[in-house]
Structures are given as structure tokens and as C-alpha cells.
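Per reviewer request, we include the raw input and output of the structure prediction for the construct analysed in the revised manuscript.
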Amino acid sequence: MSSDRPRGVIRLKPPTTDPTARPERPAPPRETAPSREIASTRKTAPVRRPDTLLTRSAPRGLVSGRGVLQANLNWSASTGADLDLGCLVEFTDGSRHVVQPLGNSFGSLTAPPYAQLDQDDRTGASSDGETLRLNLEHRARVRRLLVYTYVYEGAVDFRSLGAAVTVTAPSGGFRILLDDAPAGATACAIALIAAGADGLAVQREVRWFTATPWRSNQQLIDEAYGFGLEWVWCTKD
């Protein structure tokens, strides 16, 4: 990415025996009660189902239950790129929020927007990458949540980054590969999570954007999905 490209904006508002052998004396019976008792109290770890790959031909999944929904972004550290993970949240009352590293808008799980980013991995070297969490106790208040990512610094576009996002919840998980970016793409709207009759529907988007000196990644994504937020230019500390 060229040094003169605007780096980003923030929102202005805040799983067989031998037959000849002599018979041996039978051994005394073993006491089996203790082993039965141990077997009856032993706990087995739950078997985690493999994550479902969401593709263009099968782009939808369903999240149900309580707890926390997570969206984790990982990419190749060898590229030295700084990717940012974020989300736009719209509540049923019409209020809208943004969670992202720019502007230190890391969010909260206990207060609106009930979504929180764990860290800002600036190189991809962290094995945990970056993770967004949504408190499902408040899912009834969420009309829609858009997960996105953008290149803040260190790479021209996404084609060499090996980036992938894994969305997990108590009811199962989904994996989304970011491997089909066009040349020059600097941002991606990854998944749209929206309220449904049986829970939260996870829709694979993987829609690509390219920032310009006049239109930032966030502004382009916002305009495409109609969140209508106000943005202001900034850089990281």
C-alpha cells in the first residue's frame, strides 16, 4: 500500500486355545464395583463438530442458543500486513454502532453495542489473530451485524494474505475463506448476521472494496449496506 493512501476512518459518534493344555485353576473373582463406580462418574469431553464452510453456492448458516458468538480473523504473518477486524451493528431501536481498532472503538459485552474486539494484531503474528465477540444474551436487540476487515498497512491487497474468518457459537461454527479478492482490493465485507425466527442467520458476503484517496474502506462498506454512519479520517497511535 502506498504511503500516501489514507489509512482509515473512525465514526464520528460513538467443539484359540490349545486343547492339550491343562486347565488352570480359575482365578478368584475380581471386585468390579469400584471400576463400575469410576466408569459411572467419569466425564467425557464433548465432541466438537467441524466448522461448516460457507461458500458462494451455500452461503447461509444459523446460530442459536445463548452464550457468545465469536468471529476470528487470521492471516499470514509472513506478509507483515496489518489487517483490522471490525463490525457495524444496528439495533432494533434504530441505533447504530461501530467496533474496530481505529479510534480505539473496541466495544463492550456488557453495554451497547454488546460486541467487543479483543485486540489489535498489527502483523498477523498472533496465533489468536483478532476476535470479535457478540453477547447472545442481547441478540433480540440486534437487527443486523456486519463483520468486515480492511488492510490498514503493509500490503497492496488481500490476494497474498491467506486470510480466513471462523464464526463460532454454542450451536456450531462456520468458516469463510477470503481467497478470491480482485487485484487492488483493500477491504472486505465478510458476513452479515441478522435476526431470524429461529436465531441469528449468518450470511456469507465476501464483498470486496478498494479505497481511494477520497473514499475510505469504511465509508464504501457503510454506503453499500446503508448503515448511514458519520466518519472522520484518523491514523493509529
